[in-house]
Amino acid sequence: MLTVHHLNQSRSQRILWMLEELGVDYDIVRYQRNPKTLLAPPELRAIHPLGKAPVVTDGPHTLAESGAILEYLVERYGEGRFVPPQGSPEHLRYRYWMHYAEGSAMPPLLLKLITGRIASAPVPFFMKPITCKIANSLQTGFVDPQLALHFGYIAEELKHSGWFAGNEFTAADVQMSYPIESGVARAGAGAHPSIRAFLERIQARPAYQRAVARGGDSTPLS
Q1: Closest of 24, 146, 124, 34 to residue 79, by C-alpha
Q2: Regarding the domain delimited by 2-82, which CATH topology (the fold level of the hierarchy) does it fall under?
Q3: What does the alpha-carbon distance between residue 34 and residue 41 come to, in Å, rounded to a whole number?
Q4: What residue ranges do the domains of the chain occupy?
């Protein structure tokens, strides 16, 4: 039986959704973030040395990294579904967005989360003005302009067909769901109508709703 090692409010929600789209039976082992540090518990290191989610075990295989897991699931269980034909322009777009999600979209979102927590972190009173100034300077001078650039780009791309890799829903849309949901939660991405419409489409999918019902709170950290 395929098992998803699932951390609350994490990227592993995408894996549950993909499995529901594929109709694959799976088990869930649940983990909870440390409420103070928001890090995954040390028990996850027994499954994978980095101790992060998502991690999937499927027979002898242990897989980490969202994109790699999604590609594995589609190749093994998809029977040609959820991926454009090899050699097509849509497949090239599919490959791009599968890598863009974590390689380009998520780093500024992570910086947004970190700088926000630095500004509100408990520090000695005489250090507070300094830490806030550094965090705010980084956020307004670099992070926010980068996020505006990325989500403006994403919004324009979604205007072509509503999906990321052509006219059909693919695993690239699953992969892109996390940065988009994170962007709406903490970076104002919902100001773009095409992004809001994308979220409405994916969240209306029965498989998405089943994944949320099984996985619990899927709201990205903010």
Answers
A1: 24
A2: Glutaredoxin (3.40.30)
A3: 6
A4: 2-82, 89-209
